[in-house]
Input
Amino acid sequence: MSNNKAFAADASRKERIKEWVSRPGGFGIITGSLMFAAITLVGFIYPLVGPYAADEFVGESLEGPSLSHPMGLDQLGRDVMTRVFSAVPADIGIAFLGVTIPLTIGTVVGILLGISKNKYVVSTVSSLIDGINAFPLLIIAIAMVTFLGPGLFNVVIILTLMSWARYARIARTKAVVVLQQNYIEATKLMGYSKRRVISKHVAPNVSSESLAYALSDFILVIIIVSGLSFLGFAARPPMPEWGSMIADGRTFLGQAWWLTVFPGLAICWSAISLSFIVEGLSRRDRGNS
Amino acid sequence: MSNALVQIDSLCIDVKVTRTRRLTIVNSATFDVHPGQLLGLIGESGSGKTMLCRSLVGTLHRRGAYINSGSLTFNGIDLIKATPKEWRDIRGKEIGYIPQSALAGPNPVMTIGAQMAEAIQLGEKMDKSVVRKRAIELLEIVQIRRPEIVLKQYPYELSGGMKQRVMIACAIAREPKLIVADEPTTGLDVTVQAEIMQLLKQIRKDLNTAIILVSHDLPLINEVCDDIVIMHAGSTVEKIPSAKIQDTRHPYTEALYRSRIDLVEPRGKLVTINGQPPTVGDWPTGCRFAGRCDYAKPGCSADVEIPSIKIGPNHLTSCIRQAEIWGK
Amino acid sequence: MNRNVFLRKLGGRLLRTISISFWVMVISYSLMRLSPGDPAEARLGAGADPEAIIKLRETLGLNENAFVAFVDYFTGVLRGDLGVSLANDVEVLEIIKRTFPLTLTYIVLSVFFAFIISIPIGTIIGWSNKASAVYVFRGITSIIIATPNFFIAMVGILLFSVKYNWAPLFGYVSDFPGNLKYLWLPITVNTLILVSIISRVLQSSVVDTRAEEFVETGIIRGVSRPRFFWFYILKPSLAPTVVLLSYMMGTMLGATVILETIFSLPGIGRELVGAVLANDYPVVQGILLLFGVITVFLSFIGDLLAYALDRRVKL
Output
């Protein structure tokens, strides 16, 4: 009833924003976005303005959290807080690449498959896609490390090689559904060129679904990247990275809990903020809370 | 009046929207149902007819709705104050319910046979062979061919019409005195619609069950039912025998009647009713149809109590100006 | 569904599962060929004896045409020969037989407990009218799911091994009941995560079911409580949970790698990590193949179970 204001053509910008926020899920999306933006920004800015460098030896090893070192010092006397925030480009940045690149490749392949009339190509590639998707991502990533070697850059390659199949599957399924819709038939009858149909109707619908999945995937990939580093397969010391920091801290678990807890909390913070966004979006989709 | 099966008087149903906000869905509903009567309940979406049905089977609380005031009696029992035990004795046994065909129907994860057994037994222990016999009997009444096979099937294997017949079979399983049918044929083929209406009429005749048939299709109701209750914006605005529909004394009913599609001349204009029903909760004062009424005068929207005027033995209307418009 | 139609669909699905398994085999075998460098050299080290490198290439089938090598491998697998570990000459199959049971045990136990706990939680919250309960539930589960499992494990170790010493930090004893001491924490961690995931899906499924008309009909018919619970609430809601579960098993198998590393459990996950570090290709390939095939078959079984529960599910 009071929402009607927002639909009026002359609704002020403020009112429209207010209405958008008050719809179901708004709270989650905003909180999540703010949280995620926070850690990303701090991650990129802090190393530039902070008092210490990530690999600078600044004090006694294994000193606990204090005012000058809120997250303590690690076994080599480096400031944990600086390292935690310096790891943002590695963890979040690599994960970002590990999502966007497969997203693009996979969606394109998926749409092409959806359009294709060639039965053999479609069924072969689909089986291949199903085959790739059959492996748990972490497992096949680890296996590929055997063959491609460790390192953050290789991780991006591995993720691309493995993840595109998931996006392709989603894109293809959605593309097939969209193509069967009546409005596509309508465009054909109206004489739209095939290219136009694809770019204006198929692609946007498919992309929105793929993007939604990409957001959840982002969470997964962050965890996988840090997991791989934890096992020693991705980031290597002395590069600051949450997973490898946790692995390093394991030896000192009893004496210096802050070595593992703070990087872990950073991973949690990133993942949780993203999952708030995902949850908010899904609540919005459902139309209720 | 005293031998009425169902007596509804000034019933008011509210819904709890948030912890503090309440919406009145049904403002004032008044009508009676007699044993064996086929009563039609007509109204647009949002008129409150579904809520009214739910109040008769006691499932208002599921939607956060509750009866605010008025009275609702069935067979002498006050349904507003009925205890769970009384409801258990009434539901299924005295009052049957046929849901809207478009929405669902039988439980998709159970076989038809299992659900019929449920409807027949209603929690009581019965011999399996007796139950099975009765189930087949019921399926035959609703004109389902090869009942023994249907018993073993799952709902998704049946057509819409068949599913609805199963629901009817379940509703009449214990030969209730009243059946509430909430838009039972909406969404079904026209031919199937006709068959099911025929079936309901037959059931009424054979079992002397009173049936409240809810719909938004006036011609259908007119043809099938003995009497019609018309609802608009949460109130019952007229009750009229269907034979007398052309002697209506309420502008809304008149408008509904005139807008029937079968009345349209070839190349003629479709008659429509102006405007939209008022948004639920945003009720205007006075007569709620006044905003769309051709006969409205300023006095209609005044903040007055809407009356219930008796025109004939079975004819009630709540149009304030009815005497002026149609004469005494 | 008609008997024949069902069998036909079942057959089709089984066939598809097998063909995907075939691709799984192809992929797990071809990975080695993707290496930019020479796998044999990588294994033995850059300064190794050239003859040894050639010999290793021979063993690994790298000198042959890829197609021929694969056929060899394929026929070998069908016979049960998955190759031999480069590190210690033990048959890969033997290694699997030795390490997989432990992994399987704690996974199955985790899933079992998780289900038992999730069903009441998911159903009660799904059925509940209190918005606050739903918020809290979804909030907590979101957080648990978003937290990486190794972090939960480390926190668990911090609390229970370091602070309270209720669980040993490492080591393992394989006979029952001695091994319970070592297994309870990993199983608990796993179960906690699983409960969050399963109860969440179940909760939203119950919410959807609740809105359906047939539930209303069931109430009106006055169906008895236990019957109502199973036939009108649980059974129609379980299908998505089961499908999800079979998908989750795959992810969980993946997670075992990390868990076993943290808890120092001699399961197949830890074996895989060791093989990767040692460039022990046959072992890596063998375990990879195992995981892939298991996941594929699990998803098949999951869909079958879902169909058994709710006929609306597409096979």
In short: The first helix of chain A runs from residue 4 to 7.
